[in-house]
Amino acid sequence: MAADLGAQQLSQSLDAKTAAISIPVDYSQLLGLRARDSYLDPQLIHAFEEISGKSLVDEGFTKQAEQGRAVILEEAVGELRRRRGRGTSGVDAASSQGFLVDWGLLPGTLALLQEVGEAEVTLEVGKSALSDSKAGPFKRDILLAMALAHCTLASSAFSSQDQIVAGCSHLAEAGKCLKQGGAPPLAAELVREIEDALHDLQAPALLEQLKMPPSASTANARRAALASLKALLADPAAAAKRDGSPMIDAPFASLALARLTAPELVNLLDWQSVAANNAASIPWAFPGMLKSAAIAHMITGVVQRRPSLVHKGEALLQNISPASETLVERVVVKVLLGAPEAASGLLQEAETASASAKPPWSLGSASRASDPTSQSSISQVGRSTEGDQGLLPGLCLLTERWLSEVALKQFWVQEERPPPSSLQAYFQDAKVTSYLAGSGEEGESLKGRLGVLLDQVSQGLQRWRDPPLTPPSADSAASLSAPEARLRTPLLTAAGLTIVAVGIMFVGGLLPVRGPSNQTPRHRKTTAAAAAAGTATRETHSQQPLTWQRATGMEQRLTQPVAEAVIRRWQAAKKYALGPRHDISTLSGVVAEPWLSVVIKDAAAAEQSGWFWTYKLDSLEVVKVEVKPAKRKGLTARTATVSARLHERGDLWSGMGKRVEDASYANPYTVEYTMQFTPEQGWRISNTLVLGDAQ
């Protein structure tokens, strides 16, 4: 009877199209049949029975909706039989565009559409119907069908790992549909399930939202996600899952904070309060959290020219122990706040603390390059005399390198190009100079020093970035050679950066940068006591280069094979000088000043301490040779720059025969040699510049 009545209603709706709703699907889709052009009668019957056997009333629909579904199913089977099982293929265009139903059959039709997986069609037709005043009596059934369609789309989204936000959006829309149904509550149990699911999915949805790169198009979504994240972190106890387990824990916080820009992290929480309340007691705290927040303050302060944020970053660093873990960051802070003397003092403290664990050249002995004693060298930080910038250029280079290669790489960057990390631009900004002149213990006395400091930074960085081709005199060699100035150092750990912090300012090209490791082992100059011995050695062996040159018939023209031979002789001499016997007798035959004094001092320091190196050169390739004339002490001398790629292994050993694991290395690197030629001694190496890992 119901089927007959429904058929009559359907027939009437087809005759009065103005009173009907268009359903843009084929009859085969109403039976859940897809992907075939035609179907056999048993297939039609099976599909009909499978669908009609499920109760719609149990899901919350009205009895009228269930009866309407039965009418539509029977009509679909009958129409397909008339087509001999054919779907849209092979029928006229009008039939393939769908069919019409009147309002009385619409609830059952929408219930059927969502049931067979036509969720998008259900939402499209349902939304259109709700905008019509005739929908009033059928509103609850229409809303329930739309809610279930949203749940279907949510389930599909959740099956993908990167569609959690879309799934939550569909669940939220489903909940809205159900709540619009009025009283009595529509599908109250389903509403509770949706709310519980949305609660448990807050954290993963937030992580997915924060994965979106910051840009103008994602700004609103990120702001909403940040507001939710801030609320969750502020009250993690209120964000427990239904099973009682915490939603906000350390792994979640670590992932979320890693997806923020530096300004977003700075503004997320009151980090001073977090540090004051003992970060370890926070349930979502993770190792390195305060350090990340401190770095975010520092880099934001530099980019936005707000030294006050740098000060806050320094305050956060003071809450991290042990202090050795944040040595480099504290050094950088002092430089950014216009206090290079304080930065130098931190390095001196670190040198003293580590003297018993490392060979003497691992930290501070290189600082003697600008002065015979480490103490006087440290005291010269920030002061400059003609031909000597002290430690300031190296500290500035360290700071710029840390900003660009460590700090900026830890956070999202919204701009297409990363923000500049130039200290010159930073110290030239009026906001920076005004803040630094009016803060700190030095107060007004700093105003007069800022101009001098800026000049030193500008001149020092320019000179250290562009070293002269002709080697400087022996007196200033140590402060000018700076082979690490162009290193692509990883700068990832306090230990590795501490070495660079001092070594970047002085000669260290005897060793390459280690590849993926965070250490940068290289020989350091440790005493001035070997200077006299070096002079005596050069006098004792002054005839050796000439004898060797005559025996080999070396020409003045420096070709790649000749350059390779010189480099191999240097490698052999290095093995003797820095090896277990510390034999410097062959150095003067291949090494010229100022490099000769440097190596002799390194050898003397190593011998005194009992440390030594063993080397193995796996490969050597001379890439380029550039020769140019130069004047040296009134005599015509030829100088050349030789670029080479080497793969070398080096092991550092203690006097007790123990290999130092974190100082040994085995990796390729590129080095630039400065060579000079004199008729008496031929081609020799006068300086080196390690450029980093070979590409």
From TrEMBL:
Record InterPro entries: CDP1-like_a_solenoid_1 (IPR058032), CDP1-like_a_solenoid_2 (IPR057137), CDP1-like_IMS (IPR025344), CPD1-like (IPR044685)
Keywords for this protein: Membrane, Transmembrane, Transmembrane helix
Region (Disordered): 357-386, 463-482, 516-543
Feature: compositional bias, Low complexity: 472-482, 527-537
Domain Plastid division protein CDP1-like 2nd alpha solenoid: start-end pairs: 292-445
Annotated ranges, domain Plastid division protein CDP1-like IMS: 563-685
Keyword match Transmembrane: yes
Residue ranges constituting the Plastid division protein CDP1-like 1st alpha solenoid domain according to the UniProt record: 101-235
Record field: compositional bias (Polar residues): 364-383
Transmembrane segments: 491-513
Protein name in the entry: ARC6 IMS domain-containing protein
